[in-house]
Amino acid sequence: MSIEVGSLDQNCRQMRINLDLLEEEREKTILLVAAYQQQLTSYYNKKAKIRQFRPRNLVLRKTFITSPRQGLKKMKPNWQGPYMISRSRGRGSYTLDTLEGKEIPRQWNAHHLRR
User: Fold this and answer.
1) pTM over 0.85
2) CATH number, domain at 105?
3) Which residues form a coiled coil (predicted)?
């Protein structure tokens, strides 16, 4: 068994080579991550169904049951309505009115609405 002892110059040269290779590996990894994220984005965009509504469309809204007992919500309906879209607030947020024209106090996301 022999142990090689290198000089300080050889060690410095080898360290510079390793640092250069490290930068290349970093750049390769950054490119791979960007390609992966692009693939994920395109996959999501293929599967995503964007819901858009116009004012005066009739919609149902999802019921939010906040009762402490789990057994009560089994037989209740999942959707309430119909309601009318009064205006769009941007980014999939809508203000609802009842059919009589009374405004519902909060805004609703398109995810919680359906035609």
Assistant:
1) no
2) 2.30.30
3) 5-39
Domain that holds residue 4: 1-48
CA distance 108 to 106: 7
- Non-local CB neighbours of 67 within 8 Å, separated by 6+ positions: 73
Quick: pLDDT tens for 97-107.
Answer: 988 989 888 88
Domain count, the chain: 2
Q: CA 82 to CA 40: how far, in whole Å?
A: 36
Nearest-angstrom CA–CA distance, 42 and 46? 6
Q: Tell me how far apart the alpha carbons of residues 112 and 6 are, in angstroms, rounded to a whole number.
A: 69
Q: What is the pLDDT of residues 23-51, one digit of tens each?
A: 889 999 999 999 999 999 999 888 877 77
